Amino acid sequence: MSGNTFGKLFTVTSFGESHGGAIGCVVDGCPPGLPLTAADLQPDLDRRKPGTSRFTTQRREADEVEILSGVFEGLTTGTPIGLLIRNSDQRSGDYSKIARQFRPAHADYTYQQKYGARDYRGGGRSSARETAMRVAAGGIAKKWLAERYGVRIRGYLSQLGPLAAQSHDWSLVETNPFFCGDRNLIPQLEEFMIQLTKRGDSAGARINVIAEGLPAGWGEPIFDRLDADIAHAMMGINAVKAVEIGAGFASVEQMGSEHRDALTPEGFTSNNAGGVLGGISSGQPVVVSMALKPTSSIRIPGDSIDVTGEAVEVVTTGRHDPCVGIRATPIAEAMLALVLIDHALRHRAQNADVISETPSIPGVIDL
Amino acid sequence: MSGNTFGKLFTVTSFGESHGGAIGCVVDGCPPGLPLTAADLQPDLDRRKPGTSRFTTQRREADEVEILSGVFEGLTTGTPIGLLIRNSDQRSGDYSKIARQFRPAHADYTYQQKYGARDYRGGGRSSARETAMRVAAGGIAKKWLAERYGVRIRGYLSQLGPLAAQSHDWSLVETNPFFCGDRNLIPQLEEFMIQLTKRGDSAGARINVIAEGLPAGWGEPIFDRLDADIAHAMMGINAVKAVEIGAGFASVEQMGSEHRDALTPEGFTSNNAGGVLGGISSGQPVVVSMALKPTSSIRIPGDSIDVTGEAVEVVTTGRHDPCVGIRATPIAEAMLALVLIDHALRHRAQNADVISETPSIPGVIDL
Amino acid sequence: MSGNTFGKLFTVTSFGESHGGAIGCVVDGCPPGLPLTAADLQPDLDRRKPGTSRFTTQRREADEVEILSGVFEGLTTGTPIGLLIRNSDQRSGDYSKIARQFRPAHADYTYQQKYGARDYRGGGRSSARETAMRVAAGGIAKKWLAERYGVRIRGYLSQLGPLAAQSHDWSLVETNPFFCGDRNLIPQLEEFMIQLTKRGDSAGARINVIAEGLPAGWGEPIFDRLDADIAHAMMGINAVKAVEIGAGFASVEQMGSEHRDALTPEGFTSNNAGGVLGGISSGQPVVVSMALKPTSSIRIPGDSIDVTGEAVEVVTTGRHDPCVGIRATPIAEAMLALVLIDHALRHRAQNADVISETPSIPGVIDL
Amino acid sequence: MSGNTFGKLFTVTSFGESHGGAIGCVVDGCPPGLPLTAADLQPDLDRRKPGTSRFTTQRREADEVEILSGVFEGLTTGTPIGLLIRNSDQRSGDYSKIARQFRPAHADYTYQQKYGARDYRGGGRSSARETAMRVAAGGIAKKWLAERYGVRIRGYLSQLGPLAAQSHDWSLVETNPFFCGDRNLIPQLEEFMIQLTKRGDSAGARINVIAEGLPAGWGEPIFDRLDADIAHAMMGINAVKAVEIGAGFASVEQMGSEHRDALTPEGFTSNNAGGVLGGISSGQPVVVSMALKPTSSIRIPGDSIDVTGEAVEVVTTGRHDPCVGIRATPIAEAMLALVLIDHALRHRAQNADVISETPSIPGVIDL
């Protein structure tokens, strides 16, 4: 109830601070029989890991995950899977000053207000370091969705500050540090980031994630619609300020005759719905887009107050990402996987006896 | 788990179809001692009610709510509050045709896929008629938040199709059927709606809702952030396709030095965060914006398939809103109230002993 | 979270006071396609109903349940099922005196302490009248379990005050007002009850419920074991003070060599476990026994205090059951059904892909 | 939903198998500001630990708990507390045989049926080793309850096999390996256990736990009554087969005039209710008793089947407790603490504004 558990049937309960002994989580509800080793989870952890390019923070966390339970003889057993990553590259000395200051746009002030105290080292619990566990847990979900249903989940960066992608080629996404699929944009992104870092400022980003291959029928109408749970998951990622499904805000200016996706015997002909109708998956690709605000930790001085309410000038001097959106793609993919597996299990709990009794039609394969 | 309950400590469990005997809900967890009568809930129900202007559906539902339990001698007792609205103006004959067809952009196809069957009369459970119960339940939350914490929740329409408000005056919002605060826009909206209805088409809309007066400290970090739960609540409203908090998608193009809201001894100086930092309320107004897609039921014929997979042409002939966004303002307000009361209770469960031990600073009062 | 919802996947959310407008509940998570009418639920409601013999309270409630939603063309649709029973035979005048007194062994004092106020008419929310909704909801669960899995749930009274059954014949249970299966005991029970009523006192009882036919595999180990959830369900019935599974307290004096139920190729040879091993059903009959305390409302004067803390003498003069245990059998059956259906759904959510891959062995058919 | 999380506001999510890398849990919802170190949790872990007397299993687990998160500068921060105990004294070789056999009265058969596979080493997830984490988590709850409300939770063994305590002196309980408070019984218990071990058999036990000092008002009526949640907690402990609150099964033979606890201006005069009325604490001591079945692992050969359904003779040769009840006292105390802290938080979430507005009366201090 304190908000550290995600999901209802496939649950992830997370713990740990950026500068404590470890971060970890418990994944409960994973179906038995899934082949699983730590090596399955490491690739996405490495994609999220800091320090892999000059465009992210130069902190170096090994981020090697240990599976403590729930796997026996290489297969999940249906019992909870404990995951642990020991913290290594901490420089607590960097953070001593902020013990008494509230950094603007950070959670310092609100944690202090909520709990009457806070672990101020490196953001403590509010640090994005915690998202490594989401990526690890999401890796289990991704694997099960792929093996059991053939679901494929991919994401990419579609805009960084003012630079928006004009084209998209999936084959490029994993070849550059930005997860960008527009060949022409990549050099511009590099130059933009170099200038941004020089100025000591930071930039926002837009990330898209897409799930393909899921069947129709996932999602619980009324409050726990598939799109509502996706919005919950994405807005729960550090720095996310906005979420769209399908046409999103563009649907404000669409006419009904334009927005509605026609069904034909050959399948849907468009995907303004983003794969969700009435809160339930339609079998079309689920298409999600989100905005991440610029990193709050920047070298440019800013006005704030200290714990006594006095005015102070804050300068953040640690090693920070100039654009948190860059490393957000694997996190958003993981959260989408966690939503989908949860709804896959919820759906079959209630509807196991009627699943597949009705015909399914193809979705629009690409956007 | 089937998604018909909203909230964790202040819960709303909803039931009912548009053409069944009644719609209703159970509100559980309401603190005792709140003065409450059906008359407290009726004004918001009337604001949502169809048929109050020429610009909404001409169905006429009395929408008179009955309080069945949980109130004794005019005060809530802490036991569950049963709410009931009998359905009255149903014309089931209107819907017989759609029993075998899947209306495009409707939930017909996905309900059929999920459950193997569906109540096709008037959309059944997927009808927006169910939102009347959210408004009723939200009315209880609104009243408690106002009386206990002085929280004020208001909403308005900021765009309808291509027509976006250029100014905002709260005093106008309740004086026109669109909940619009831009005096110059109102006649344009009327004309636009008349033309839209003539063409038999529908339009999307953008709605904003704002909560003022809440203290810092509400929201559970990590997964159940206040903004994540708001996104869940809003995306769970029929037809909503996108949600923003504070600067929302505009934060993609902001620099960190521009986005961050300075704290000063006199209070915050801007509100790009939309009242939430690290998932916890900052004491600033909570600012939410959302997109509603155009109504799916339109008179213009569209391509679809029937339950056997054969191609059909669908024309929707019932009485439908040409813009569902128009009646969405009280629904969005209700959902925001439900999120806030839930987090108010969650916060004090864990933190009752430390609340108010730290100083609070003023927020930016208006947008 | 305020405790008015039972179950996790098949949930019952209950509302209503004994002297309010109605009692009701929402059943969420019922699989679609189950044939269901109010007539399916009425028999168990009639078995629980007061006033059907001289040995129960002479209040006369019609207890006719109305299905408000979730059923279409005679079949459940998978959407929430709203159930309602209007209150009819209330004599609020009977209860005016207790507004200021705390009746011993009642919930008057604790409700007042918890909520600062209470609906004192007929026990308000703490009245056993609320259990009618459990019986109605349990009727849906019973029907689904029977149709889908062939599960049969039955209960009987095995002791009333000092009178314990020495034999058990299922065919007798529904032929006497006590739900007793011991032919010789029935006339003794009648005489005992007549004397008890004359004295104005009340008596306790022991009730047994048994579920047969369920498969192995239901129950979630560690905290939500099948037996733990059964204990929760039974101890949550008004007046229940103790719960046993299988050998129960007798297992204290058993040796391990005596308690353990041997497995043979022909099946289990005994059932000390009561059908549950490690929190998971073994396929043997689930055997539950419980104690119900004597009715608290009796005509014999008792010492108590009033709301100001002053000593008072309390005499309860309304129409009350001299033994609440008599009407408890259908309630206990309903609760067992609610636990089982919930675990049936939980089991298949996680384990749908491995169910039935291993051989099952027969259980001991009778106790 | 897979049953590895206990509690709703103060939650414990457990993971780990007896022969995996570690066992651990996440405690979420702990109020901030509680002084906490691993040393606070160690005493109860040591009380539960195997190998501390000749009457328990001779396995030697250090059972040293590590606090991984949620504590900063010696105080809880309100964020989740990760707890970890590495497994050390495992002899996996002992268990190779049971890979293909189902030990009678164990969870082998049911885990296999449920999940299609199982970690057979030392019982895997079904091993009582997991209860070490309950004791650790319960230690946090105990400490908070004591510091915040002055609640004291204690337990003792009241019967072992046929040997029942005839007197009770709290000061003796921690001075003998049985947690027994009857001076005369202790030598008999020693002799009984020696004979039992010689025979290779095992015995059941009865454990009582009592909480004193809690206020009236804890517990959520209807389904999540305080006593119902206690029953759930206790029946969820390995080997527990029965639970009583207050008079328990004795209430079957009590008259209403005898069972009801009188309220007087000086306080309650008896405690048949066991501290709970209508599911809500009355301020009297909460009194719980439970039966633990004899250990299933015994050296006496028993009939069973193997994974192919063939008859086999099973002899359990590992190091096992001849009476699991002996080490159960700290586990039962921990579970009671977990129930109480959860309801303390639930109560104040809803009722923070009315708490303490009504007078409280003293309870019966001892049984």
Automatic annotation (TrEMBL), chains A, B, C, D:
Protein name, as recorded: Chorismate synthase
Purpose of the protein: This reaction introduces a second double bond into the aromatic ring system.
InterPro entries with a match to the protein in the record: Chorismate_synth, Chorismate_synth_AroC_sf, Chorismate_synthase_CS
Residues binding FMN: 125-127, 238-239, 278, 293-297, 319
GO biological process: amino acid biosynthetic process; aromatic amino acid family biosynthetic process; chorismate biosynthetic process
Gene Ontology annotations for the cellular component aspect, listed alphabetically: cytosol
Cofactor binding comment, as recorded: Reduced FMN (FMNH(2)).
Catalytic reaction list: 5-O-(1-carboxyvinyl)-3-phosphoshikimate = chorismate + phosphate
Gene, per the UniProt record: aroC
Pathway: Metabolic intermediate biosynthesis; chorismate biosynthesis; chorismate from D-erythrose 4-phosphate and phosphoenolpyruvate: step 7/7
HAMAP family with a match to the protein in the record: Chorismate_synth
Pfam family, one: Chorismate_synt
Cofactor: FMNH2
PANTHER family documented for this protein: CHORISMATE SYNTHASE
Subunit structure: Homotetramer.
Organism: Luminiphilus syltensis NOR5-1B
Similarity comment: family membership: Belongs to the chorismate synthase family.
Binding site for NADP(+): 48, 54
A single MF term (Gene Ontology): FMN binding
Alphabetically ordered keywords of this record: Amino-acid biosynthesis, Aromatic amino acid biosynthesis, FAD, Flavoprotein, FMN, Lyase, NADP
Enzyme class: lyase
Keyword set includes Flavoprotein: yes
Gene3D superfamilies: Chorismate synthase AroC
E.C. no: 4.2.3.5
UniProt keyword Flavoprotein present: yes
